[in-house]
From TrEMBL:
Classification via SUPFAM superfamilies: Nucleotide-diphospho-sugar transferases
Name under which the protein is recorded: N-acetylgalactosaminide beta-1,3-galactosyltransferase
Keywords, alphabetical: Glycosyltransferase, Membrane, Nucleotide-binding, Signal-anchor, Transferase, Transmembrane, Transmembrane helix
Lineage top rank: taxon: Eukaryota
Pathway info: Protein modification; protein glycosylation
Organism: Rotaria sordida
ATP-binding as UniProt keyword: no
Amino acid sequence: TKATAKQYISDIHSAFDRLIPAHQADYVRCRLLEIFGGMYVDIDIIALRSFKEWYDYLTEYDIVGYSWKPDGDKIGIGTLGPVRAHHPLFVHYKNMSHTLLSRKFTNKTQNDVLQWAELLREIIVPKFHKLLEKNLTRALMFDGPTTVGQIVTRNPLRPINESVIQALNMTVPYLMYPNSMMKKSESEQQILDSTTLLANTLLTRARAVHETWASRCDKYYFICEIIPKNLTHNEIQLIKSMPIASINNTLPGYNHLTLKSRLSFHFAYEHHQNDFDWFVKADDDTYLIVENLKLFLSKQNKSEPITFGYNFKPYVPNGYHSGGASYVLSREALRRFYLANNDSKSQCQEDGGGEDIEIAKCLRSVGVLAGKSIDQHKRERFHPLDLNDHFFGNFPDWLGEYAENQPLSVSDQ
């Protein structure tokens, strides 16, 4: 309840009073957030002064690094890689403090904000708990949806001016359902994800997927064309921890995405046809909000020959889904795809062409339909472009020609 959440905020302030001396943090920010009928408390520790502690364990874990630089009134911790596009994690200014919630974790801008939010939840916060050697209640730390919400601040050193409050309220559009907020019928939707990647992204993008959203699928695996050589011990251990499907006959490069996807679906059918309700094909630069997808799929029929994704109109009768936005096959759709590809009379292309187009042509040839996935407000659930483009409406001309539904930005809604 809201009263309980407000009590949580009070308890959190008390906890931080005990654990963080006043000279170490300008203030602790707590927010009571309400979204999609759920409610939770969000916490930010703003401008920790003991940057050396953060730097030591973050660089050890290889999350951020290479750019520890005291600089006059400003102290910052840099991002992955040398100081290109320097986005500090926490920054302290002499007369004010704020958090910059943006960083480079993958080499695609569209994932930066979401990957950072999820990284904060999955890795940094638990490690910060360990650093403090106190057991703050984990459910109160980044365990739910983050959006613009009510700010409650407490500042032991100085008052916070209005411009800082406004900056803090421009938060990450991180729409997450904690599993505890999901109804049983929603959480019971069994999802298998396969992520296609290139060899040179295994230690970067694939790692981001592995350490963030993929673990909330019921099972997931990577389709990798080749394992890199000359790896360090830590890199070898990382790869050993990643579920890489044992699929032969893949060919390197973007020109063979159709082959990779086809083999991926064959692997899913041969090993897991009866274990899962839905099968997701994603790329290594995809960010999937699994809980929201499960909520949507809980209202669909897994026994129908149907797929869901961002719908394009041209090239394929009844349309196809953008491969870059990821797409989902029902159990029956997967079965028909597998049988079609093992039929000597099949019209399905083995390789080449546009992967999303060729997969869709094959599916349509065996009666699999492209489902509708927009919500009641005509908003898309799958997004093929950069996050910023969808947010601000920077749509290329071709999208309006290809898209089945009129593209909408946040300002349009």
